[in-house]
Amino acid sequence: MPRKTPELPDIQIRRLRHGTTKSGKPCKRQHAVGGVTGLYLQCMPPIGNESTGSRQWILRATVGNKRKELGLGGYPSIPAKDAREPARKLLSDITSGKDPITEKRSQAARLRAEQAKEVTFEQWTRKTFIPAESAGYKGAAQVRRLNQLLRDYVFPHVGHMYFEDITKQDIKNILDPIMGFKLPIGSIKKETGMRVQRYVDAIMQQAISDGLRDKANPAGWKHNLETSYKHLKKIEVRHQRAIAWQELPSFAEALIELNSPTKLRPDSHCFLFMILTASRPQEARLIDWAEIDLDARIWHQPKGKYKSKKLDWDIPLTSTAIKILNAQPSFTKQQGRVFSTLNGGQLYDAALSSIPDSLGFNAVAHGFRRTFKAWCMEEQVNDDVSELVLKHCETASTRAAYADNQLLNHRTKLMPRYEKYVFSLKKWEAHR
User: How many folded domains does the chain comprise?
Assistant: First the structure.
């Protein structure tokens, strides 16, 4: 039977200090103080310039099948009489099968969770959601628009509220002034309302994921808010204006005629390059020589640029696309931006998108990707191949195809066929 430690009086406890090793080095020492089985005062040697070391109450106990040391606070801020009672309670809990360490951690986790929920909608949105959302935007205008919509329509209603307290009615209070009455399709108010709803929905979803709300999302549309706005027809997807695929050779002819033997137009060159690669206007405008491998006839789009946030992307270049690159003033140095204005400035989307209208074609630059897709459908091109030319990886099949080397070989064979069609008018041959 183990010897029972007599209960030490306060005067003796005050005298307890750290120990020393056989070599004379200061070391930790635990002193049994009696009164409660397993109760010790742990004395640590001083560190650095400290005159005395620290002292802490420790309860040694077997929890389950493991020997553990449970901290009860520091000494002398907690005197012996105030340490013995909690120690007895812990021993009683352990005897009844409880694990005080697990309980303490659970309590701490619950406390942290409750404290986290005390952040308001506006505080969390400004600190967490807006920076994360803005990181995926290409320009400052999008960021300003996001902040404006939240500032003008959302924060006045729910900015001061905790996520747990926000109800469907609160969301309706946001949306009703915008689209709570009959609005025509394509109206500014209606599209603004739907954009606000999508932002609030995304914020609530993320807040729920971060543990700021335990209830369901009150800002979801399907089977939720849509029932309150049945008077609104579903917003039609407004596609970018595009010419029919049959018009493409005529457009290409008109485009090349913008150039004269003595004056080449970089905007028309960029536009034609965009057509031959089925790329987005922004991608064609911002292409850099560092991305071009003329020998391999490949345009390497690095992840993090354009819409290649998560993956590198290779675009095959046709013979005419190569000729266009070789014709640029920057070709001699092969550094910096490929396409620039005549004075070396940056080309803008507006400059490209104005070209079709100026030539008498009802289209915008981005719409030529639709034209390419329509031609592919007419030519019965494999859908996965055409979608990967457009760099669409949303479906399961295109994601699988992307995993298979982006179907680069198939795309490399397809684009010269498309080029041949673009140049199918005999009159065009004179300009090539």
Answer: 3
